[in-house]
Amino acid sequence: MTSKSPFQIGGVVLPPYFVGRENNIREITNGLKTLSQNYLIVAPRRVGKTSLLWAVKNKLDKEKEIIAIYFNCREITTKAGFARKLVELILQEYEKNHSIKGYLESFKRAFKGKILDAVRRLDKIGGSIGNIGEVYITFREGEINEEELLERSIHFLEKFSKEKDLHLIVILDEFQKLKDLNGYLFELLKSKIDTQKNVRYCVSGSSISMLNEIFLQKDSPLYMMFTKIYLGSLDKKTVTNFIQKRLRKFNIDITEEGLDLIYDYTHGIPYYVQKLGHFCFYQTLFSKRRVDAKMVHKSFHRMLIEFDEEFESRFLDKFSPKRRAILKEISKTDGARVSYIAKKLGLDVNFLGESMHFLVESMVIERKSRGFYDIYDPIFKQWLRNEL
Ligand SMILES: Nc1ncnc2c1ncn2[C@@H]1O[C@H](COP(=O)(O)OP(=O)(O)OP(=O)(O)O)[C@@H](O)[C@H]1O
Ligand SMILES: [Mg+2]
Fold first, then answer.
1. Which of 214-223, 332-341, 361-370 has the lowest mean pLDDT?
2. How many Å lie between the centroid of ligand 2 and the Cα of residue 356?
3. Sign of dihedral through CA atoms 133, 138, 142, 146?
4. Which pLDDT score, from 0 to 100, does residue 1 have?
5. Between the CA of residue 174 and those of 121, 136, 211, 241, 307, what are the distances in Å?
6. Which phi and psi (to 5°) does residue 151 adopt?
7. Which of 12, 14, 50 is the best mutation target for the ligand 1 pocket, counting ligand atoms within 8 Å of the beta carbon and taking the most?
8. Which residues 6+ apart lie within 8 Å of 236 measured at CB?
9. In this predicted model, what pLDDT tens digit does every residue of 69-91 receive, in sequence order?
10. CA of 18 relative to ligand 1 center, distance in Å
11. What's the distance, CA 46 to chain centroid?
């Protein structure tokens, strides 16, 4: 199949659309593979957490003695839902890797269809699968509650991996969403992780404050159990090589100046790199087959227009008037000191502390050095400037 664009915007990207991150992937897969670490990956929106997690999974999938599952916690609203999906994904992966059929289907019978039939099927399989199936039947019959179901399901991970002599890697994207399950799961993981010898976790999230609550404070349940990795933008060389290579595949050139501009505009944020790349490519369909600075400028403005609505609603919904004023002030400069912002807004510095803290924790602004901040998202920053 031939693709219509050298770039892919949105969704999970695989090579050749995926670029960079080699060191992160190597570190994470090694730590997980050897069962020596659990990982927490933190990054602002659109930096590529989901894509990285899939790259890790794909690499782990090459190892015969490993079962890796990817799970997006956004899809989950109840403890029972989470527990059930976890078991299903493991059985599904196991069947895929071992050309075995019937495990997942038998497990599913535990919560739909005739109970007797389910019991018979599960009995035949026996072992940890038969066992967890029976647990689900007792849950269905109202004999145990959701929390017990979740506990038993987490316990199943270890039992199953031991029984099959496997390493089990559980990848949980948007981990902070599980906060909606009342923190019970975090307490559970805390008590189980140390005893689970064959299971490791790799989780991601995009809100520092929520993740801090879960992970970093001394009294938070999962403190110290995870190795933290901050995922940043792609560096300039990686971005320019990628753009050049992708365009060349479609017999299109790009000038040095054009390449520099793409990096300047996007700061190497993967989502924007793909988007700006695509808009530049699109223009070549109607004119010369060479991207130059003028085309990059034009594409960038198209991109800004496209994001206008999204940025506007985010700006108005998410930020109080004071926070908006701070953001606007910072957007005028290449980063700003808190004292400078305070002066410009005619406010006392101490009066800004709480707002600055909020903006940093939600990864909207980033602390460049002591007391010095800039807006993280360069496209949002440009949009703010235009709004002034
Ligand atoms: N390593 C990469 N190489 C090339 N493009 C990438 C890479 N990572 C991400 N992208 C681009 O950015 C887009 C968003 O990536 P992804 O969904 O992985 O980000 P995310 O951090 O999970 O975002 P969100 O916070 O919205 O869930 C991808 O669809 C792709 O276009
Ligand atoms: Mg994601």
1. 214-223
2. 25
3. negative
4. 45
5. 35, 26, 10, 30, 23
6. -60, -45
7. 50
8. 263, 268
9. 999 998 888 899 999 999 999 99
10. 9
11. 8
Q: What is the mean pLDDT of residues 251-272?
A: 96
Q: Which pLDDT score, from 0 to 100, does residue 220 have?
A: 65
Residue nearest atom 12 of ligand 1, based on CA coordinates: 271
Q: What are the pocket residues of ligand 1 if the criterion is a CB atom closer than 6 Å to any ligand atom?
A: 8-11, 13, 17-21, 43, 45-51, 206, 270-271, 274
In the reported structure, the alpha carbon of residue 233 is separated from the centroid of ligand 2 by a whole-number distance in angstroms of 15
- DSSP label at residue 251: T
Return the CATH number of 22-230, one of 3.40.50.1460, 3.40.50.300, 3.90.550.10, 3.90.1300.10. Answer: 3.40.50.300
Q: Whose CA is nearest to atom 4 of ligand 1?
A: 18
Find out if CATH 1.10.10.10 is the number for domain 319-387.
yes
The confidence score (pLDDT) of residue 218 equals: 63
- For the chain, which residues make up each domain, given as ranges? 22-230, 236-315, 319-387
The torsion region of residue 335 among left (phi > 0), alpha (psi -120 to 50) and beta comes to left
Query: Could you tell me the distance, in angstroms and rounded to a whole number, from the CA of residue 230 to the centre of ligand 2?
Result: 14
CA distances from 228 to 5, 42, 110, 216, 361 (A): 35, 7, 38, 9, 16
Could you tell me the two tokens for 169? 């890697």
Which ligand is nearest the CA of 25, by number? 1
Q: Report H helices in 143-230.
A: 146-163, 184-193, 208-211
